[in-house]
Amino acid sequence: MKKLACTVLLIALAGCASPQKSDSQIYQEATALYVTMLPAGQNSVSLPTVKIPSHGLLADNLAIAAGGGANATQLRNALSAARAAGDKGFLIIGSQNGALDLAVIKNAVDSQDLSGMTILYSGDPGKSDAIRSAVEKANGEFQFIR
Question: What are the sequence ranges of the domains in the chain?
């Protein structure tokens, strides 16, 4: 039993040690991609950003059960504010938990009209199709940032 527990812990820690892009690198990549989608002649770029925080396995699972909880509300409000300000792009930097990202984003975009907006998401590639579906259901465009 101890060997099993040690093996599980080692696998979990190995995942934590894998190299990750910094938020700054993600923002730079997203901005570079977003600029290529702008109409010719547009010189200014506004790309509001929200990072989905992870608070550990137990707290994340509670947030998932609550449909994203306060994180979904925060993202919904940020998307509404960006839309009201006339922003056409929005970057979401995912947590280390793809299921949390999906719950937060799915509930944040539910009942929103994102037409004319492009949502750029950097996070779990395994959840990108489900997140794309939720964004497109809200009439937004979706781009995944690796």
Answer: 20-145
Nearest to 94 by CA among 37, 146, 45: 146
For 10, 12, 18, 96, 145, the CA distances from 93, given in Å and listed in that order, are 26, 22, 17, 10, 9
Residue 125 burial (CB count, 10 A): 10
Task: Per residue of the chain (146 residues), give pLDDT as tens.
Answer: 444 333 433 444 444 444 578 888 988 988 888 888 877 777 777 899 999 999 899 999 999 998 888 999 999 999 999 999 999 999 999 999 999 999 999 999 998 999 999 999 999 999 999 999 999 999 999 999 98
**Side-by-side strand order, sheet with 49-51:** 49-51, 89-93, 118-122, 141-145
Angle, helix 69-84 to helix 98-109, in steps of 10 degrees = 50
Cα 103 to Cα 8, 65, 100, 109, 121, distances in angstroms: 25, 8, 5, 10, 14
